[in-house]
């Protein structure tokens, strides 16, 4: 089956971009699915000190980085070509709207990535555990608390991303390039995720996450031509 990607005709650069965006969306789906499942089988408290994080990173670097949203940061990078692909598809008829939506999502992505504390905390953890000097340990612990405090500002970016995704879903519904079901998955899923981020209501996190996963998966399948 030929997808809408072939409507670009001789604009092969746009075709390649959409293909890359499709594979990026499928990879993002896999990482987000792993994140959703792994989050259920691991327990993490939001009320932990920098020293607690240092100990966790020492015991298991993977678990420590995961609890510091390192996987979400990687997934945010992966979603960037997806956003550019969606811009390429809708730029002709909905330029102002899709531009606003994409910029909102990208701005939120950059805030989230820049403020992610995972790698700075990993470095501080190594320094904390490699010194025997009590004063140095106190210094690194204080630095870790500062990093965690700065990292909390990244949640603002995590709010902007679903906002942008909501606007993208609205454009998708209006353009009818994608099936309406895909647009509704994105619209409802990202609204639920936004409410979860703002109000920390776990009961809506699962349906929101599942709808978001379906949205990303179907976007990826649509962006990749099959002939």
Q: Main attributes?
A:
single chain; 227 residues; mainly alpha; 10 helices
Distance between the termini: 6 Å
Q: Please, what is the average pLDDT?
A: 89
Return the string of H and E elements: HHHHHHHHHH
Question: How much β-strand is present in the residues?
Answer: under 5%
Cα radius of gyration in angstroms: 20 Å
Q: Could you say which overall geometry the principal axes of the C-alpha atoms support? A: elongated
Number of helices: 10
The secondary structure category is: mainly alpha
Largest sheet: none
- What portion of residues is helical? over 70%
Task: Point out poorly predicted stretches.
Answer: 6-10
Could you tell me the number of beta strands? 0
Structure report:
By secondary structure, this protein is mainly alpha-helical. Helix content is 79%, strand content 0%. The chain is built from 10 helices and no strands. Helix 2 (50-59) packs across helix 6 (118-130) and helix 9 (180-199) runs antiparallel to helix 10.
Short description:
With 227 residues, the protein is an all-alpha fold. It has helices spanning 12-41, 50-59, 61-67, 70-90, 95-114, 118-130, 134-151, 154-175, 180-199, 205-223.
Topology at a glance:
Blueprint: H1 12-41, H2 50-59, H3 61-67, H4 70-90, H5 95-114, H6 118-130, H7 134-151, H8 154-175, H9 180-199, H10 205-223
Helix pairs in contact: 1-4, 1-10, 2-3, 2-6, 4-5, 5-8, 6-7, 8-9, 9-10
